[in-house]
Amino acid sequence: MSRIGKRPIPIPKDVEVKFDGDLIVVKGPKGELKRRVHPKIRVDSKGSELVVSVVDDTRESRSLHGLFKVLIANMVTGVANGFEKVLEIVGVGYRAEMKGRTAVFSLGYSHPINFELPDGIDAKIEKTRVILNGIDKELLGMTAAKIRSLRKPEAYKGKGIKYADEIIRRKAGKAGIK
Q1: Whole-number Å distance between alpha carbons of 130 and 164
Q2: How far apart are CA 34 and CA 139, in angstroms?
Q3: Backbone angles phi, psi at 77, to 5 degrees
Q4: Dihedral sign, CA of 69, 52, 4, 13?
Q5: Which residues pair with 84 in a beta bridge?
Q6: Pick from 69, 99, 121, 159: CA 20 to 30 A from residue 52's CA?
Q7: Alpha-carbon torsion (72, 32, 44, 50), positive or negative
Q8: Which pTM was predicted?
Q9: Tens digit of pLDDT for each residue in 91-148?
């Protein structure tokens, strides 16, 4: 059994959870999220907590136990508080700006890169910081990863787009000829 899966998920007062067959719907002040639950996983409501359990004791259902507990906990946290990812742009002349729902990046290429934000993700750009907000942690992480992949940080000068908490391991350059 999963140790993570055994822990109950506390439901805040302003969050409402509904079950519709294998679909779980979580509503809160920030929005609404839906997810299909695997048939080998059972989700029960006990007072102000959700309990995730397995239907049988197979290897597959044990592996899904902790996964679905964390996915549902992220849904509850997202609709209650939301999530935030911060990216930093490092490099001379590298910059970004918002034009409606499109982020325009100048990253040293011969052309600017237009990045259309998906529905449910909001962005705020402050000079060299890109702040992404959303209620769906999975979508937020994918969006941040796609933006980072536009110009990954390189190891010599650290130029590129990196997460704010990411540490870039720097390499020494050429020693030179003596």
Answers
A1: 9
A2: 13
A3: -65, -40
A4: positive
A5: 133
A6: 121
A7: positive
A8: 0.89
A9: 999 999 999 999 999 999 999 999 999 999 999 999 899 999 999 999 999 999 999 9
